[in-house]
Amino acid sequence: MTTDGRAAYDQTALRAAVLIHEQLSRRGTQDTAWYLSEVSWTTAARLRRQIALAREHGWHRAAARLLGDLTAVL
């Protein structure tokens, strides 16, 4: 992975973490364990890779749409 690709990956991971945090904070589940099913985890990982690839190619609209899909899965 190139330096630019790594930066895009890190940025996407950070955005996903922020979205997860916001969702959990709104629900008041800070003290509750939160688990994903294997299907959801696999889907989230696939979407994460697709977001990174879209960003590497400069496809910002595609990345934004995929990030919305990732948020829905989480």
Q: Which SSEs are present, and which pair or pack?
A:
Layout: H1 3-27, H2 38-56, H3 60-73
Which structural class best describes the helix and strand composition? mainly alpha
How many distinct folded domains? 1
Cα Rg: 13 Å
Strand content: under 5%
The low-pLDDT segments are: none
Spatial shape? globular
Beta strand count: 0
Report the average pLDDT across residues. 83
How far is the N terminus from the C terminus? 26 Å
Number of separate helices: 3
Helical content (DSSP H or I, runs of 4+): over 70%
| Element pattern in H and E | HHH
Largest sheet: none
Question: Could you explain the architecture of this structure?
Answer:
This protein is an all-alpha fold and 74 residues long. It has one domain (3-73). The chain is 78% helix and 0% strand.
